[in-house]
Amino acid sequence: MWVVQIPAIEERVGISHAALGGFLVLLGAGAFAGMQVGGRLSDRLGTRTVVPLAGVLCSATLALPGLAQEPWALAVALLLFGFGNGTLDVGMNAHAVQVEKAYERPVMSAFHATFSVGGVLAALAGAAAIDIGWDPATTLGAAAGVGVIIALVSARGLLPTVSTAPVANAEDEPATKKRAVPTRIWLLAVLALLVMLCEGAANDWSVLHLKSVLDAPESTAAFAYGTYAATMTIGRLLADRVAARFGPVAVLRYGAALAAVGITVVALSPWVGAALTGWALFGLGLSGCIPQLFSAAGHADPTAAGANVSRVAGLGYIGMLAGPAVIGWMTHLMALNHTFLLLTLFCATAAAAAAILRPSPNRSRAVELTS
Q1: Is residue 54 part of a domain?
Q2: Residue 313 half-sphere exposure toward CB, CA atoms < 13 A
Q3: Start-to-end Cα distance in the chain
């Protein structure tokens, strides 16, 4: 809903495209801070408490950019909106880990699929609001009201919080002592950064690639992102079944490998049809990767699921923001399509490192000791 309103808000506040880029950095900074806070609160208070509160905060702050009349007001609004969004992002993913554990089968990708569907529905609703003449304040205010209602009503359906905190005894270290973050969590976070950097690059450069490199008409160029987003959603709807049958390692390994093939086709093909096929393969391959990384982070340690998800999601979000900028900087050195070969390298790296999703031999023993 916010993205659809960006042009109107930019014009009303009176800022340039360059200034808008700086404001979007504030949105990202707020989101990153919210992820760190949301992870810790989810472990301390439980996701059943954090998710509804974060949902209300995220929804309410959505209205603020629509009300901003001055650049400073928009900056504050985006910082607060980003914080609410980041808090909700981690809280709902941590709760999804809890749901997945209760189901005893993979379901994380299905949640990410509904996230994609929600984005499409919101964009359509925002476009319809523009067509009937609603201004940003009215549109975002209405969306904020609907979001608050959904957050409060759905709270009753969330799973109850199950305490997973270790109980200290005379022979153990104090339960409150700060523990070092396992190396495995940071490796998952780095992979999330690489994969989400690829997603960010596709979001911002897929359409421009067809238009500027292959001279496709604007109407045809729009299909580049459309095919990528469509196969991303379809892949997420199917990825849980694949993970249940073949395991998360296979989803990441072969998904990232397929994405590497797809983006290589995009980078090297001189034909529009082949490029569209490449973007479709890229979206399908990436579709199941991030859900598996988030799920692995949440299941790694039941006592720190929220914090671990926040670390992986936070670093991944940095990659999402950095992707467009990295590609943009590289276009000063080479043609746009050739910059995509960097994404090939990142996808190949993720495929090669997929074994990190295999549970640690000590994990089951650690869960027993902390249950």
Answers
A1: yes
A2: 31
A3: 42
> What pLDDT score does 171 carry?
45
Query: Would residue 168 count as lying in a domain?
Result: no
Q: Which amino acid is at 259?
A: A
pLDDT tens-digit profile of 314-346?
Answer: 888 888 878 877 888 888 889 889 999 999 999
Shared domain for 226 and 107, answered yes or no, is: no
The answer on 82 and 8 residing in a single domain is: yes
| Residue-wise DSSP of 237-275 | HHHHHHHHHH-HHHHHHHHHHHHHHHHHHHHH--SHHHH
145 in any annotated domain: yes
In this structure, how many other beta carbons lie within 10 angstroms of the beta carbon of residue 42?
Answer: 32
What is the count of structural domains for the chain? 2
Q: d(Cα 116, Cα 225) in Å, to the nearest integer?
A: 13
Q: Are 307 and 197 contained in the same domain?
A: yes
- Residue whose pair of structure tokens reads 């991303």 in the numeric block: 232
- My answer on whether 133 and 237 are in the same domain is no
Closest CA to 89 of 362, 358, 298, 342: 298
**Cβ within 8 Å of residue 87, ≥6 positions away:** 34, 35, 37, 38, 41, 50, 54, 57, 58
CB-based contacts of 218: which residues, under 8 Å, 6+ apart?
211
173 pLDDT tier (thresholds 50, 70, 90): very low
Sign of torsion over alpha carbons 27, 32, 37, 41: positive
Same domain, 127 and 228: no
- Positive or negative: CA dihedral 111, 113, 114, 119: positive
C-alpha to C-alpha distances, 371 to 100, 239, 303, 308, 367, nearest whole angstrom: 17, 30, 9, 18, 6
Do 126 and 41 share a domain, yes or no? yes
pLDDT, one tens digit per residue, over 64-118 is 999 999 999 999 999 999 999 999 999 998 899 899 888 888 888 899 898 888 8
Domain span including residue 341:
183-370
Residue 176: inside a domain, yes or no?
no
